[in-house]
Amino acid sequence: MATTESILQGVNVSGQVTDFNKKILTKDALAFLALLHRSFNGTRKNLLQRRVIRQAELDKGQLPDFLPETKHIRENDAWKGAKPAPGLIDRRVEITGPTDRKMVVNALNSNVWTYMADFEDSSAPTWDNMINGQVNLYDAIRKQVDFKQGPKEYKLRTDRTLPTLIVRPRGWHLEEKHVTVDGEPISGSLFDFGLYFYHNAKELIKRGTGPYFYLPKMESHLEARLWNDVFNLAQDTIAIPRGTTRGTVLIETILAAFEMDEIIYELRDHSSGLNCGRWDYIFSVIKKFRQNSNFVLPDRSAVTMTVPFMDSYVKLLIQTCHRRQVHAMGGMAAQIPIKDDKAANDKAMEGVYADKLREVKAGHDGTWVAHPALASIASEVFNKHMPTPNQMFIRREDVKITQNDLLNMNVPGKITEDGIRKNLNIGLGYMEGWLRGVGCVPINYLMEDAATAEVSRSQLWQWVKHGVSTAEGKKVDKAYALKLLKEQADELATKGAKGNKYHLAAQYFSGQVTGEDYADFLTSLLYNEITSVGSSSPASKL
């Protein structure tokens, strides 16, 4: 077998290695990353190219459908996913958020069942955010994460079992430019997964759970197959049993919605279910069909979970998961408590209650919240209506979802100037935070992440592209969009803190709202602004 030193030939690190993070950036861990990269990066790049080819087909008017070549998988009732892993049997309320030390402590102290620690949409992938997040999780697993910030102490509670930890690595499309292998940046997915898995898998097993992941942004079952191969190689390499690792897949693209059975099948020994990633799903519908005028949607506020295409997606996800005996997880409540307005806060919390009630009655096995204060509302609803650890026994055999149901864009609502300005505010507000290294931005008492910013810019692009008119009678064209963008950026920049980045955000945003250029992801578009690639050091010399 190759030695660590020989594997590290061609591996370079340009991110800063400090006393704080050097326990993560060990030679053995970097050799493990190199092994993953050399084994899987070629496949990853081929799958990304397959996305480009698929998009070209959609641009020509082709519509997705259930795959004829995998019909035998969908129609076979005999196969099932893995039985729930330790710590993942009851997942009724999950809190999500970035991996900064304060968030990690607060999330693990919340009255929830699991914590999804996020390296993806609620984190801006600066080197410090990504590598320090790994340190924080390493310390939290070993219960040595307590710290002081000024006069305030942050300590893990000791009066109850802590929530099960689940980690969301970045999607297949993102790279980590601060580590290169043989001259290529390593995949952000493999970097996030690899460091967490290498350092913590055995420790997690020793403590009664395991290395569990949320897998984002997939567009086909072949991308799930790649994750399964990664899991198998990783487990074999550190000599733990296959099936110990688990992945819950976020169904947050319209193409994945047509391959839910196949995605569970590919991961079946490692599957812990599917999740409704609602905002990314709406973004995906607009993005994938952006050239098709039949898919123009009204103001974001009108695209609720009860409109036909969203309702169909939820029903099919629950039916598919329960047929395969894995968890069907609900979506995010992004609200933040409104402390200075009781009436407004009461109304917002009533909305959270109603949303969670819809989810539990539909058959979901659990749900997401973004703020610890919402956990009690979600728990109240699920405890009342789901007295069992999950409700996989609700098979939803009444559901019959077709291609037309998933693509039914009959969404009542209007396109308004207020809707345009709200999209601009959310897009600019999020991008400005991201450019400062913050990936989770409170705007109008909602915790916005990359997905909601993507919906905002994609809607604007779509409206300009297809020359729609607002309810006020104004045609939405390039000049109008740029005029409103300038007004909103100027207003935000004036009100914002000194040294804010609203005008830099507007520069990037202006290229994304004119119905012309369209970046695959905002995060890819902005990434170079937050990298700190300096002189690189060979990994063998660290």
TrEMBL record:
Chain segments annotated as transmembrane: none
Keyword set includes Transferase: yes
One Gene Ontology term, aspect cellular component: peroxisomal matrix
SUPFAM superfamilies in the cross-refs: Malate synthase G
Subcellular location: Peroxisome
Pathway in which this enzyme or protein is active: Carbohydrate metabolism; glyoxylate cycle; (S)-malate from isocitrate: step 2/2
InterPro entries membership: Malate_synth_C_sf, Malate_synth_sf, Malate_synthA, Malate_synthase_CS, Malate_synthase_TIM, MS_C, MS_N, MS_N_TIM-barrel_dom
GO terms of biological process kind: glyoxylate cycle; tricarboxylic acid cycle
Stretches assigned to the Malate synthase C-terminal domain: 414-530
Stored NCBIfam families: malate_syn_A
Keywords: Glyoxylate bypass, Peroxisome, Transferase, Tricarboxylic acid cycle
Source organism of the structure: Hyaloscypha bicolor E
Similarity comment text for this entry: Belongs to the malate synthase family.
Stated name of the protein: Malate synthase
Catalytic residues of the enzyme: R168, D449
Known catalytic reactions: glyoxylate + acetyl-CoA + H2O = (S)-malate + CoA + H(+)
Domain Malate synthase TIM barrel: residue ranges: 164-408
Enzyme Commission no: 2.3.3.9
The UniProt record lists the keyword Transferase: yes
Malate synthase N-terminal domain residues: 10-72
GO molecular function: malate synthase activity
